[in-house]
Amino acid sequence: MKIKEKQLYTPNNRYSLTFFCLLIMLTISTGIFEAKIAAQNDIEVTENPIYRDPQPNQFFKKWLVLGPIPVSAEETIPEKDKQKKIFEAEPPFPIKDLYPAKSSHQIGDKEYQWQLFASEDETIDLNQIYGTTEFAEAYVWAEIHLSEPKNVLLGIGSDDSVKVWLNGQTIHQNWSDRPISKDQDLVPVTFKKGQNQLLLKIQNGRSNWGFCCRILGSDTLPRKLLETAGLGDLDTLEMLLSNGADINATNYGLTALHYAKIRGRDDVITFLRKKGINAKIPMPAPETVIDALFQDIIKEDSPGAAVLIAQNGEILYQKGFGYANLKNQIPITPQTKFRIGSITKQFTASAILKLKEENLLKVTDRLSKFLPDYPRGDEVTIHHLLTHTSGILNYTNYPEFAAAVETYVEEEEMIELFKADKFDFDPGEKWSYSNSGYFLLGHIIEKVSGQSLKNYLKRHFSDPTGMKNTEAHDSNHPPQNEATGYSYVTDKPEKAINWDMSRAGGAGNLYSTIQDLYHWNEAIFNNKLLNQNTLKLAFTPVKINDGSSGNAFGGQYGYGWMLMEKRGLKEIGHGGSLPGWASYLTRYPQQNLTIAILANASPAVPNLVPSALADTIAEIYLWQQMKPMESFATDKTVNISDDYIGQYDYVGGIMTITREGNQLFAQLTGQPKLKIFPKSQTEFFWKVVDAQITFVRNKKGEIAHVIHHQGGQTLTAPRLEQKSVAQINTATYSHYVGEYDYGHGAILTITKEGGQLLAQMTGQPKFEIFPQSKTKFFWKVVNAQVTFVKNDKGNVSKIIHHQAGAEIQAPKIK
Asked: Which member of 159, 299, 579, 603 has the greatest number of CB atoms within 10 A?
């Protein structure tokens, strides 16, 4: 798993009541389900799913299934405590010597019959079986017959929570909101000789619902061993080796020792050597590893990516994987053209800086100089636009934008769409990613230069550098050899929404190739397009009014470039993402290393995340120059207290820390609930992701905030004051039911279901909101509140929404 996401065309939506995670994004391969019903509800099951001496690595695809059993008959969205209580309960039927094929069970007021299901896929999709079902649980059963007793590792993945019984005894449980991926949980199991009964409970929260299960073996353990060595997880390494993993096995040509060296895990290196790993096995060439990595991710008949790696002016690696066009079976090559999304921003910023060098403008110039009628234009500077500190709303977040994105628009018309909107914040007060700012910059370039943005970039950048395949995209005249963009909405790629790139403008309208982007980086970083002083300005981190960097995706931002650090090495890059396209271009300036990855799928091919892959490639080439990373083993002497429990503000999302016994859990809004393990009394770490959290106390000894460390970046998150839920008459909820207009197609719909008041933003799930008073309500999933306001007649006429320092007044329209 990866937890870092640096693609920058992601939303930072003030209307969003879920957390679009900008610093932390789990990239998990979500299993896609295809199940066949082997027995319908009205057919008696006469066969048990029996596996006789099952082979390792093969998934169990045949199960008896019982469900769906609702978590709550009274509540549409049950409280977390209730969900957990139901999850922890024993099954509502005897589980010792259970033979489901011959039994049915009365649960509540309904009788449930076991059904036999066989899946053609690696996973069982319970929504495929029962229809879309939320806040429910199901039981699945299989029998395993062994000729001899055996110790094995079960690899289990689930969406969401899973509890496992073997021969009537609980052997594993993980209560977590998470998407499914293979082998998420590793469960040591001792199967006895003869019959073994395996029973799983799968509890669902929202959306997808399913599981997968197999015995790990020689084909799967090496990957897990390599992954664990890279994460520095000494506890799991010990477990893997104790359960049959071959210490010298390879994956992508690498042993665990090789990968520990690449990731800088010195303690893992010491551990593996003590365990007897063969240190003489040669490490494969970087190109061999990268070939294996991309071939593993990009399968046959799949969209793919073009990859280029260069150092010191020499191309070390360039190759295409997958298809540019699936229908015509056109392969991706280094010459394939891709839309590059927000990588465009460094071109737009460079054009502004070129005009500055020509004394045609200054970065301190006010927006009103170029657009005299722009509201508050005398407060906004070009510097604010370049650095995402203007406070101007991001127009690509508007629901109405998505509805019109395939049609051409004039620049002036697009600017009219957002210019009348209230600012998110005063210029310079915060950092908030805004495509609107770069669209305005593209317009300013045209006004100042007297040329179209397309022609200006071609004349000043593309032509001088020999970039013959980079230009502003024109939907009426699409470029030859352009890839087709795809989206993974289900288990198969579909053609993505085809943006008319006039709607991206200076924020993201370019197409390019990996070869052209290499030429671009060489020209920029060798001062061939801009002088050294100008580049120094471009690569200077922005400071907001309080002197901080404003949490720019957990890192720093200059003029069109993200400024980062990777294990002690300076990194300057940017990503791009729009439907059908994902891209990343980065430079390690001190090592003169360029990495360019362009992909033609977004939502992506599972695990094809350009920014994460670029990180991996950089480590493969530069690991000997990088700082080492810590390895972790659980400090079992730490006594976990309730001091840590609470919610912490991650700027747009909430990190919730909970305790179960002597185990802490951390859950970021919209992401799985994961265990965190003590390294010391104040420092904790994740085992499944490379991240740590430090709890910081104030002078009174109270935990005041946490510091989140990840990918060389840090985020300080203050502890939120615990809000108390007021006890009010839920009959009053009916006064608040209706629709509230947030503008630009965004509607907040309030409904009353039972004793709950639910809020749903356009395109978002429903979430319960909780009363602080008779008129003020709050979300638990995000730091946001709404107040219902009545008019002179005593009727609710609007709501006032507070979130991330912004206030929105939304009139009731229905």
From this structure: 159
**C-alpha–C-alpha distance, residues 678 and 658, integer Å:** 14
Structural domain includes residue 48: yes
Q: What DSSP assignment string belongs to 103-149?
A: -EEEETTEEEE-EEEEESSSSEEHHHHH-S--SEEEEEEEEEEESS-
The pLDDT tens digits of the residues spanning 766-792 come to 889 999 999 999 988 788 899 999 999
Q: Rg of the chain's alpha carbons, rounded to an integer?
A: 28
Q: What pTM value is reported for the model?
A: 0.84
pLDDT more than 90, % of the chain: 68
Predicted pLDDT of residue 47: 66
> What would the two tokens of residue 653 be?
């999302």
Distances (CA, A) of 323 to 78, 181, 301, 525: 45, 25, 7, 32
Closest CA to 554 of 26, 27, 22: 22
Give residue 157's Cα distance to chain centre.
18
Closest CA to 310 of 532, 581, 627, 588: 588
Q: Let me know if residue 221 belongs to a domain.
A: no
Helix orientation angle between 435-449 and 411-419, rounded to the nearest 10 degrees: 140
Nearest to 433 by CA among 765, 22, 721, 3: 22
**Most confident region among 97-111, 509-523, 786-800 by mean pLDDT:** 509-523
Among 305, 231, 181, smallest CA distance to 609 is for 305
Residue 162 and residue 181 in contact, taking contact as beta carbons nearer than 8 Å = no
Query: CATH number, domain at 240?
Result: 1.25.40.20
Helices and strands (H, E) in the chain, number of each type = 17, 46
User: Which of 700, 747, 745, 739 minimizes the C-alpha distance to 719?
Assistant: 700
Both structure tokens of 656: 């919730």
Percentages helix, strand, coil for the chain (3-state, rounded to 5) are: 25, 35, 45
Q: How far is CA 51 from CA 98, 158, 213, 298, 413, in A?
A: 16, 21, 13, 32, 64
* CA neighbor of 385 nearest in space, from 507, 278, 295: 507
List alpha helices for 562-673, DSSP H: 610-622
Domain that holds residue 325: 294-625
Q: Is 721 helix (H, G, I), strand (E, B) or coil?
A: coil
pLDDT score recorded for residue 652: 65
- Three-state DSSP string of 518-577: HHHHHHHHCCCCCCHHHHHHHCCCCCCCCCCCCCECCEEECCCCEEEEECCEEEEEEEEE
Residue 28 in this model has a pLDDT that exceeds 90: no
Residue 5: inside a domain: no
Last residue of a domain, one of 215, 244, 263: 215
User: Would you state the structure tokens that stand for residue 806, as one six-digit string?
Assistant: 């912004």
Reported as a single tens digit per residue, the pLDDT across 344-361 is 999 999 999 999 999 999
Distance separating alpha carbons of residues 321 and 333, to the nearest angstrom: 7
Decide if 214 contacts 121 (C-beta within 8 A).
no
Average pLDDT over residues 117-138: 92
Residue 540 and residue 597 in one domain: yes
**Could you read off the pLDDT of 640-691 as tens digits, one per residue?**
888 899 999 887 678 999 988 888 999 888 787 888 989 888 999 988 888 8
The token pair that represents 58 in the structure block? 């093969």
* DSSP structure class, residue 290: H
What pLDDT, on the 0 to 100 scale, is given for residue 206? 83
The mean predicted confidence, pLDDT, of the chain is 88
- Same-domain check for residues 494 and 528: yes
Per-residue tokens: 398:
């508007």
Q: Residue 8: pLDDT above 50?
A: no
Q: Which CATH number goes with the domain that contains 118?
A: 2.60.120
Residue 723 domain flag: no
CA distance 687 to 527: 43
Domain count, the chain: 5
In a shared domain, residues 408 and 350: yes
